[in-house]
Amino acid sequence: IMPIDLLNLQPQKISKNLKGKYILLYGLPGVGKTSLASEFNNVLIAGFEMGTNALNNVYVQPIKTWKDWRDMVKQLCKEEALQNKFDSIAIDTADFAWDLCVKWICSQNGVEKLGDIPWGGGYDLAKKEYTQTFRDLTYSGYGLVFISHSTEKVYKDEKGEEYTQIVPALPNRPFDIVNKMVDIIAYIREIPVEIGDKIENKRYMFLRGDQRFLAKSRFKYIVPKIELSYEA
C-alpha cells in the first residue's frame, strides 16, 4: 500500500477513453445492453443472468451464488496478472446481483428475509456487502459496467402532480449505491427513424434525461443522445 504523499500530489487528468469509467446501462430485455458491454476493451462479464449465450469470443464468468461473486472479486483484486488482463468488469445484471447478495445475508444470519434481522440490521448488512465488492474492484483499478433492466415508476413533481418515468429496475437501496458510483447512466431504447421513404427502428443511448426517463452524465460536454455502439 502506497503511503499518502500530498506534497507530490498531481491534479488528475480525465482520459478520453472508457477505461476506468463507471457506467450504468439500462433498458428493456434484448435491446443490446450486454452486447454493448461486451465491446468494452478487455472486459470480463460477470454473468449473474444468462444473457451472454449469443456472444462469441467474450470472457464470461457465470455467477450462480454471491459466494461465487465474492471469490471472483477476491481473485481479481489479488492477482496482478488479472489486473493487467482486464480493464473493466461488467455486472450482468446489477438487479440479480442484489438478489443474490440478499440471499447471502439471510443465509449467513439464519433468516428468510432481511426484515427478520432486528432494528433494520439486515438492510445495513446487505448494503455494506453489496457496496464493498464494487469498491474493492474500483480501488484495484477496474472500470465497472453495471447492467440493469428498465421499469416505470410514478413520482410527484414540485406541484404534487404525478408523472411516470422510465428508470432502472434496481430496488432503491442498490440503486442508491450504484447511482453514487457511476459517471454515466445511459438509457437504451429503440426509436423510429425516417430513412428515405421508410421508417426503421434504430437503437440509441440517451445520456441526458428528462421527466420521461432517467439518464445522466458527470461529463458536461457529452451529447444528449448517440447511436448504440461502443465507437459512438
Keywords:
globular, alpha/beta, 30% helix, 6 helices, 232 residues, 10-stranded mixed sheet
Blueprint of the fold:
Blueprint: E1 22-27, H1 33-38, E2 43-47, E3 59-62, H2 66-78, H3 80-85, E4 88-92, H4 94-109, H5 121-139, E5 143-156, E6 162-168, H6 172-181, E7 184-195, E8 198-206, E9 216-217, E10 225-227
Parallel strand pairs: 1-5, 1-7, 2-3, 2-4, 4-5
Antiparallel strand pairs: 5-6, 7-8, 7-9, 8-10
Helix pairs in contact: 2-5, 4-5, 5-6
In brief:
This protein is α/β, with parallel strands linked by helices and 232 residues long. Helices cover 30% and strands 29% of the residues.
Summarize the structure in words.
By secondary structure, the protein is α/β, with parallel strands linked by helices. Helices cover 30% and strands 29% of the residues. It has six helices and ten strands, in the order E-H-E-E-H-H-E-H-H-E-E-H-E-E-E-E. The chain has helices spanning 33-38, 66-78, 80-85, 94-109, 121-139, 172-181; strands at residues 22-27, 43-47, 59-62, 88-92, 143-156, 162-168, 184-195, 198-206, 216-217, 225-227. Strands 1, 2, 3, 4, 5, 6, 7, 8, 9 and 10 form a ten-stranded mixed sheet that branches. Helix 4 crosses helix 5. It is globular. The model has no long low-confidence stretch (mean pLDDT 91).
